[in-house]
Amino acid sequence: MNDESKVKTEDSAADFIPPVWAMKLMTKSHVFLNRLSGGKFFNSLKGDDVCFISMTGAKSGRAITIPLMYVPYKEGVLLVASMGGAPTNPVWYNNLVKHPDIEVSHRGRRMVLRARLAASAEKAALWPICDASYADYADYRQRTDRDIPIFVCEPAS
Question: What is the pLDDT of residues 99-108, one digit of tens each?
Fold first, then answer.
């Protein structure tokens, strides 16, 4: 047996990106269970805080709420459009580009914010803040060739 036959290549579970239908089901379940508990449960994922973003759908115009990792920043939050390092942006990216006014709920606190895409020059300073809140973002950047967008969400003036 040569050395090459001893080497076993496996896809890591960390590299697994669920299909879109599974992501939608998980998202709807997460939001439903959080609301059912009055916001007391389903506020974290693997020990990291989650917030709930209410936005308007880019195509449908309907109100949509999704859970995303909570990254506090100044008087608002940063939202990372990573989708687990998938090769394309998440659908909610288009929602925020078209309708930047959002509401963020985090552990009973509600914030009315306006989202804007971070400029390339400012992203270098934002990534360490994002990584400190959710370490997997660094893995997601390694997993994809796309430039993962960051939205800076600040109080609407």
Answer: 999 999 888 8
Which residue ranges make up each domain of the chain? 18-155
130 in Cβ contact with 150 (< 8 Å): yes
Instruction: Specify the CATH architecture of the domain 18-155.
Output: Roll (2.30)
Q: Rounded to an integer, what distance in angstroms lies between the CA atom of residue 139 and that of residue 28?
A: 25
pLDDT in tens, 25-62: 666 665 666 665 666 656 656 667 889 899 999 999 99
Q: Amino acid identity, residue 77?
A: V
Measured CA distances, 118 to 53, 73, 81, 97, 149 (Å): 18, 13, 11, 12, 7
H/E run at residue 72: strand 72-73
C-alpha separations of 10 from 13, 14, 84 in Å: 9, 11, 19
pTM attached to this predicted model: 0.78
Q: Where are the alpha helices (DSSP H) in 1-157?
A: 3-6, 20-36, 91-98, 120-133, 136-143
